[in-house]
């Protein structure tokens, strides 16, 4: 009888331990699934396509077919072989993939523009490394056929001006169907794509070609404006137009206070004053979107031309990445910023879950105490130290 009793107690103990382990595994999996999958849906589902002014007022209400749903994001900086630690790659690229795929599924944009620095090491990567980076890009930013995605060249994709070569520009163009200085027209809306790295103004071959194309496009657009007054383009490029610093930029995703007053270097942080004025004179764009600084900023040029600097899309560059959603017609533009999950929020959830797990495990080996009383005892001991 005693032996049977011991066996029964042993069986009960093993069963109890198994149930406890199962609970721990379920808890851990729940936290993991939430932090790596569900949190993106919880956050991005709160974003919405902005209403146009006339749509809100009920004046000349545009139909859904005339509104182009557009997403603008910038500076993913997919890591390469040289600077990219495998864990850093895994963490940040998973974040961008889940964010992008969730946004596509929930928001159903018609067109997406990536405003440069798609890669981190495109400026010096070998052909093999480039192919590997492109393969990862195509996985992260996969999109259905009904959604168009356009990549715009940045300095990390082909190098700064003195690192830029025709070879690097051509291999980028092949992957992204990118053509420097071209106009993409959708639903009567003109998007002007500019290779801002080539606007050095030193008459290099690539720079001369780029400037000649821009002059030709400006003539064509100016002729169009006489017939269609709404043909003014939306200018898309990597470098922002010239501004002294980010001192006037506001918002939670603007540059940190200690960097706001740092003076920008022309042709490195921003375009030169000369190149900026040329673009404004030639095209009179109705809106400008740029990247490069990794922080948000809104600037008014010549008193009536807005420029939006789009923050980085990656946790590697900022804790609170975001993208811009635009409802655009041939006459109106309305923008809305959609934030992604904050990295420190995800870390805090994991840390909290880890603490709860630790308490549950320790309390399990103190069977006479509930987890609540166990925590109380720990706090009492801590205060006594």
UniProtKB/TrEMBL annotation:
What sections of the protein cross the membrane?
20-43, 347-365
Q: Which GO terms describe its biological process?
A: endoplasmic reticulum to Golgi vesicle-mediated transport; GPI anchor biosynthetic process
Q: Name one Pfam family in it.
A: Metallophos
Q: Name one GO molecular function term.
A: metal ion binding
What is its subcellular localisation?
A: Endoplasmic reticulum-Golgi intermediate compartment membrane
Cellular component GO terms held in the UniProt record = endomembrane system; endoplasmic reticulum-Golgi intermediate compartment membrane
The reply to whether S-adenosyl-L-methionine figures as a keyword in the UniProt entry is: no
| Domain Calcineurin-like phosphoesterase span(s) in chain numbering | 69-295
Superkingdom of the organism of origin: Eukaryota
Report the cofactors: Mn(2+)
Q: Report membrane topology.
A: Multi-pass membrane protein
Record keywords = ER-Golgi transport, GPI-anchor biosynthesis, Hydrolase, Manganese, Membrane, Metal-binding, Transmembrane, Transmembrane helix, Transport
Q: Where is the signal peptide?
A: none
Q: Does the keyword DNA-binding apply?
A: no
Function of this protein?
Metallophosphoesterase that catalyzes the removal of a side-chain ethanolamine-phosphate (EtNP) from the second mannose of the GPI-anchor protein intermediate. Participates in the glycan remodeling steps of GPI-anchor maturation to allow an efficient transport of GPI-anchor proteins from the endoplasmic reticulum to the Golgi.
What is the name listed in the Swiss-Prot or TrEMBL entry for this protein? Metallophosphoesterase 1
Gene name for this UniProt entry: MPPE1
